[in-house]
Amino acid sequence: MISFVIRLRSRAHFIVKSNLGGANATFLGARASRRKEARQRLAILIAGFLAVYFIIGARLVQYGLAEPAVTGMIGSSPVTSRPDIVDRNGALLATDLNMISLYADPRRIVDANEVVEKLAMVIPSLDWSETHKKLRSGTAFQWLKRQLTPKQQSDILALGIPGIGFRPEKRRFYPGGPTASHVVGHVNVDNQGLAGMERYLDQQGLGDLRRAGLTGGAPLEPVRLSIDLRVQNIVRQVVANAMTAYKAEAAGAVILDVDTGEVLAMASVPDYDLNEPSRTLPDGSVDKDYEKGWFNRMSNATFEMGSTFKSFTLAMGLDEGKINLNSVVDASRPIRMGGFTIKDFRGKNRPLSIPEVFQYSSNIGTAAVADRVGVEGHQQFLTKLGLLSRMETEMPGVATPTQPRTWKKINSVTISFGHGVATTPLQTAVAAAALINGGTLIPPTFLPRSAEEATRMSRRVIKPSTGADMRYLFTWNGVKGSGRGAQVEGFHVGGKTGTADKVINGRYAKDINFNAFVAAFPMDKPKYIVLSIIDAPQTGEHGGRTAASTAAPMIKEIIGRSAPLLGVQPRFGPPDAPRLLENY
What we know:
disordered C terminus; alpha+beta; five-stranded mixed sheet; five-stranded antiparallel sheet; elongated; disordered N terminus
């Protein structure tokens, strides 16, 4: 009985144990199944995430490749700043103003016609056809109107038009308007430099910074120019008044520091208002005559500079030792050469001393000096002065001089008195500075430059003794010759006039002049070169059309008004040096 009970218990224990083992196995199987399901769900989640990631990435690539124009406009920062431009004394010449511009997302425009009609009520100048075309383009972004007034923005907001918005922009503002238009230059609606020093800034890396979106943060340091705004205003007024008074096609002037090459003022008229570089006529077209004012005749154009070139010819003869101030050349009769006759305007018909050749502006005497040097030496000397090659300076768009392909004796003769070679007025002033400052050629600059920096980049082109002789000749002509019309009491002005027949359609016009005057002051210790030009004047002081009656009076007014501002102290009495000789 007992053994039966034991067997029964053992069987029951076995049954219980068997049941527990089965339950445990079932539990373990369920847990494994859940782990497998979890891994599957995780795999599905990862796969879904990767799919979404690649879809988004592919879409971005599609936008970048399929719509470069639209995405480029959206992605580029509209709030790109330019540095302020100031004059040498810190006076503001150019700065940025914060503006608001109107754009549209054509994909959200419901009725393009209605939008155009509503916007036209606020913006009367709106181009209906062009705006409608933009609104129906189906792109993501379109500019509708750049640089709105605050009232226009407020009125458009009140219209409540879906699909349009506003974006901040920068607008360039020039407090002086046209005062320094050709020096400062201007920008387009996207604040990109198009001319003058504005374009120079972009060429120096500002354009690359803009494209990289790195100009929308902290303000950039102001860019200081070499010009003096006070003097610039005087020069611009003088040339503008001269153009009107002499009924000329154009006029211009420049002031240059002979020791540093700094341009202190430069003006060319016609000019234009930098705040309105392109003017729109009532019919919506662009005023092309107004845009002609963009042309800078002082550095972007070349002219035959007439008798101002006699300064370089006599300097050449002096420097080569072919003449000295006591030399005499025969100017008693015209020179006939190759079918041409070289004669003097109001000639003396007698032998002339070198100071008299300069004083009476003798073509015959100057040609004789060039002949003593020779054709090859003449070309080399003008090349050394930088008059036959493109001038190096910061100003963009500098014109390249023209010269004969092959120099012959007749070319050397005519070039000696300023016909046959065309240079820019600015580089003529630079070469004249080398004759006056002791003989060193210094590249011109529109940025501040110290005397030490100028010395490092200068090169000697004539002997110091030649420079002293040229200062004598400039002074002589300023007191006794054609430069008397430029003389300013107390400032001892010396210089040389140049009256050239203007080239029209490849021929010299006998009744149309291009006049110039290159001057230096104060002649006892020259500090500044001033050069003026007047293109095709119809009348001048006392009715004359020559440089003495037109270009010289311009110099007189410029120096008389600007010399005190430049710190030149007037000194009355004869100049200390060079001493003038009454008789030769």
